[in-house]
C-alpha cells in the first residue's frame, strides 16, 4: 500500500516495489489508467519512475509491488516513429497540448535481441496525469521491434563496439 505526506507543497507518495523496496514518488508522477493495462485491468494507478542516466523509465503499480514495466521513448531509437491518436483516445486522455509517448520494453538475455512495442504505445497526459496503452490499428509497426537492426549490430562488432 502507500501513504501520502506533504513536502514542499507537493504530495510525496511512498510505494513498495519489488526491485527497490520503498520508493518516494511525487503525486505528479502518478498516472491514472482508467481501464488499466491489457492483462492488468484491475491496476489503474501507476508511478512513472525514471531510471537515472538512461533513456528508460519504469511504470510501477502503486498497489502491487511486483508489477512494473520497463518503458522507453520510442523516438530515442526510431527517429521517424509517428502515429495519429484517435479522437476517442484524445478525449479519454483529455489531451489538449502535451503528451508523452513510451514503448513497453522486453528484455532478452542477449541485449541485442531486446525489443520495444511500437504497435501499442503507452500514451500519457502529464497535465492531467492520465494514461492509456493505445493499440494502433492498421499500422506498419510491430510489437517486437528490435532496438538496433542486425546491420547496426554487425557494424558495431566490426568497429569493435559492444
Can you describe what's shown?
The strands form two sheets. Strands 4, 5, 6, 7, 8, 9, 10, 11 and 12 form a nine-stranded antiparallel sheet that branches. A three-stranded antiparallel sheet has the order 1-2-3, with no helix packed on it. It starts with a strand and ends with a helix. It is globular, with a radius of gyration of 17 Å. The N terminus and C terminus are likely disordered. It has a single domain, classed as BH3618-like (Roll). 9% of the residues lie in helices and 36% in strands. The longest helix has 9 residues. The chain is built from two helices and twelve strands, in the order βββββββαβββββα.
Can you summarize this structure?
With 162 residues, this protein is mainly β. Helices cover 9% and strands 36% of the residues. The chain is built from two helices and twelve strands.
Helix content: under 10%
How would you describe the shape? globular
Q: What's the mean pLDDT score? A: 86
- Cα(first) to Cα(last) distance is 41 Å
CATH superfamily: BH3618-like
For the record, what CATH class applies?
Mainly Beta
Which structural class best describes the helix and strand composition?
A: mainly beta
State the CATH architecture: Roll
User: How many helices does DSSP assign?
Assistant: 2
Number of strands: 12
Domains counted in the coordinates: how many?
A: 1
Question: Unreliable runs, pLDDT <50, ≥5 residues?
Answer: 1-9, 151-162
Q: Give the ordered list of helices and strands.
A: EEEEEEEHEEEEEH
Radius of gyration, in angstroms, nearest whole number:
17 Å
Largest sheet: 9 strands, antiparallel
The fraction of residues in strands falls at 35-45%
CATH fold-level label:
BH3618-like
